[in-house]
Specification:
- This protein is about 35% helix and about 25% strand.
- The chain has five helices and nine strands, in the order αβββαβαβαββββα.
- The two termini are about 35 Å apart.
- Pfam families: SCO1-SenC.
Length: about 200
């Protein structure tokens, strides 16, 4: 009987250890074909640090494409992102990354992105602002189904889409519109964040 109990305890410990190893190794798993982490481009964040998208792997990503000199749609999208962030329960906040990608890399230098993040009270670790070159930005916009077009030297026409990606970088949900209810978006973020250990 003692041997059986010891065997059961050892088995449970082994299962527990293996489960922990699996959860810790999410970044070592192969990237799926549907993941944005297949995109090899380099991006620069608001702190001037060069990163690849796959460095964000393991968190739920909430992404929107904007440009900082925008006076019409972007301020509303920024407010929507702040409202979404405010609705994420505290227990999931460290499992979510809110990412704003510039469609105007010429104007949106790392310094400009940093200033914009400060102006808009988006300075916590959960906020990431990214820029790249025109080609990478176009390719990324196509993946997000975001259309944009320069209509003057300082103005763009663009889609207003907020996208949610799971921890593996696969598109989980998208919502289009300005100032609409983002309850479904928040529900999807929580659902995906709850899967992360």
């Amino acid at each position: 009987m003692k041997k059986i109990i010891l065997f059961v305890i050892a088995s449970l410990l082994l299962i527990g250890c293996n489960a922990k190893e699996e959860k810790q190794d999410i970044k070592d798993k192969p990237i799926t074909d549907l993941s944005i982490y297949n995109l090899p481009e380099k991006w620069t964040n608001q702190d001037g640090k060069d990163i690849e998208l796959k460095e964000l792997r393991g968190k739920v990503l909430v992404m929107v494409m904007i440009y900082t000199s925008c006076k019409s749609a972007c301020p509303r999208l920024v407010a929507d992102m702040r409202n979404i962030e405010a609705k994420i329960p505290e227990e999931y906040k460290d499992k979510v990354q809110l990412v704003l990608v510039s469609i105007d890399p010429t104007v949106d230098t790392p310094k400009r992105l940093k200033d914009f993040s400060i102006e808009n009270k988006m300075t916590g670790n959960q906020w990431v602002f990214l820029r790249s070159n025109e080609e990478n930005t176009r390719e990324f916009a196509a993946v997000l189904a975001v259309n944009y077009k320069k209509i003057s030297p300082i103005d763009f026409s663009h889609s207003n889409i907020i996208s949610v990606f799971n921890a593996e970088g696969e598109l989980a949900f998208q919502q289009e519109g300005l100032g609409v209810s983002y309850d479904k978006t928040v529900s999807k973020i929580i659902e995906e964040a709850a899967k992360i250990e």
